[in-house]
From TrEMBL:
Gene behind this protein: ispD
Name of the protein: 2-C-methyl-D-erythritol 4-phosphate cytidylyltransferase
KW Nucleotidyltransferase (keyword) present: yes
PANTHER family hit by this protein: 2-C-METHYL-D-ERYTHRITOL 4-PHOSPHATE CYTIDYLYLTRANSFERASE, CHLOROPLASTIC
InterPro entries: IspD, IspD/TarI, IspD/TarI_cytidylyltransf_bact, ISPD_synthase_CS, Nucleotide-diphossugar_trans
Catalysed reactions listed for this entry: 2-C-methyl-D-erythritol 4-phosphate + CTP + H(+) = 4-CDP-2-C-methyl-D-erythritol + diphosphate
Assigned protein family: Belongs to the IspD/TarI cytidylyltransferase family. IspD subfamily.
Site entry: Transition state stabilizer: R10, K17
Role of this protein: Catalyzes the formation of 4-diphosphocytidyl-2-C-methyl-D-erythritol from CTP and 2-C-methyl-D-erythritol 4-phosphate (MEP).
Positions bearing the site annotation: Positions MEP for the nucleophilic attack: R149, K205
Superkingdom of source: Bacteria
Length: 223
């Protein structure tokens, strides 16, 4: 599943980051091309209600593409996609959720993530250890203290879980007004075990305009 209904306000007030071009191809098409390297039964794109562009794109394995309406926030888009999936998939099937603006994930990371989840029979996410020194900063921008980075990891996507388990976790978190920043946070709140699988630092998420050029360079180097 790829939630692609977000406005991406940190990137631009008027332009959607998933539809920016890299090498004459949109970011979203690059992202679909990467995850389609896995032997997926299909993929679901959760798009905005006013989005008339997504379904005109030449996605990889277009015969396996499904579209559904996204929601106000990422979590609502994921929940809508899960409900759509359950109209033809089994609740015990595995589902990967991947950011629309994360086009540089490698097939090696994708394969390792899936293999580890199936082997352990637990949900899993790609992540990398935090490298830089972390500072806790007050509202006036003065440092309060240095935070130990030991045991801290930076979460990435894809994140993989059983369809039914993830749906139940998201619904439970929403009912209890818990802030959900990724799929793992909902699973954690339910007390589910989530495994961390080593990712790569070049699996960046395009968040700000200068990230687009970095993604361009990464894709060029990977090819």
């Amino acid at each position: 599943m790829i939630p692609a209904a977000g406005s991406g306000s940190r990137f631009s007030k008027t332009e959607l980051k998933q539809y920016q071009y890299i090498q004459n191809t949109t970011v979203l098409e690059h992202t679909v091309r990467r995850v389609s390297q896995l032997p997926l039964n299909g993929y679901v794109l959760a798009i905005g209600t006013q989005d008339t562009f997504a379904q005109t794109l030449a996605f990889q394995n277009i015969d396996k593409a499904h579209f559904c309406m996204g929601g106000a926030e990422r979590v609502h888009s994921v929940l809508n996609a899960l409900n759509h999936l359950l109209t033809f998939a089994d609740e015990n099937d595995w589902v990967l959720v991947h950011d629309a603006a994360r086009p540089c994930v490698t097939i090696e990371c994708l394969n390792t993530l899936v293999e580890q989840a199936i082997k352990s029979n637990h949900s899993a996410i790609l992540a990398i250890p935090v490298r830089d020194t972390l500072k806790q900063v007050r509202v006036d921008n003065y440092i309060n203290k240095t935070v130990s980075r030991d045991s801290l990891w930076q979460a990435q996507t894809p994140q993989i879980a059983k369809i039914g388990k993830l749906k139940k976790a998201i619904e439970y978190a929403l009912e209890n007004n818990i802030a959900i920043t990724d799929e793992a946070s909902a699973l954690e709140y339910m007390g589910e075990t989530v495994q961390v699988v080593m990712g790569r630092s070049d699996n960046i998420k395009i968040t700000y305009p200068d990230d687009l050029e970095l993604a361009r360079l990464i894709l060029q180097s990977q090819s």
